[in-house]
Amino acid sequence: MPAHSGVQVWLALWKATSAIEVHAGRSGMQLQMCRSDFAILEALLQQGPLPVNTLGREMALTSGSATTAINRLENRHLVRRVPQEEDRRVCLVELTDEGRALIENASDNHSALMESACSGLTRADRKILLGLLEKLGLAAESLAEKECRSPRKEDAPTKDQASFKDPPSNKDSSQPPAEEIGFAGFTDLD
Known about the structure:
It is a single chain. By secondary structure, this protein is mainly alpha-helical. It folds into 2 domains: about 25-120, Arc Repressor Mutant, subunit A (Orthogonal Bundle); about 125-190, no CATH class. Helix content is about 55%, strand content about 5%. It contains 7 helices and 3 strands; from the N terminus they run H-H-E-H-H-E-E-H-H-H. It has helices spanning about 5-30, 35-45, 50-60, 65-75, 95-115, 125-150, 160; strands at about 50, 80-85, 90-95. The chain has a 3-stranded antiparallel β-sheet with strand order 1-3-2. The longest helix has 26 residues, at about 125-150.
């Protein structure tokens, strides 16, 4: 394998992600929930109510898995589904008061765990790393979009599968989002 190859980059990212995931998983374990449930609560805290399909896409869950996760959270009275008057096909998921209190408290603990997991990097290191990850993610996303338009479309990932951008927040789904936050939003550490 050539030095600094794409495969080496991928393996290093995979190993680093796996190591950090151990710490991230502790956040959900403390709440007796799996990572996807924790991630859904965190997304709702950060972005507000979201359509079921957006939550699923953002968490890289199939439609059935997203529905199952939301059902689990609903059974624990942490989220509720809110049908939309203007389009009955759209159902938003929002935090209940109990869910908000739980995830706000857990979010502080999660932040502390992530700070600990990243303690081997200075703020300057983190800024450089985030810039490089943004560059890598956007380049890979662009390539995936081109492959989606290639003649062998069935072999290429879909745009949703390859997206490195956060979906827009749709607090009012009738209004276009004010801005889309991609990787660029994560490089501002000052």
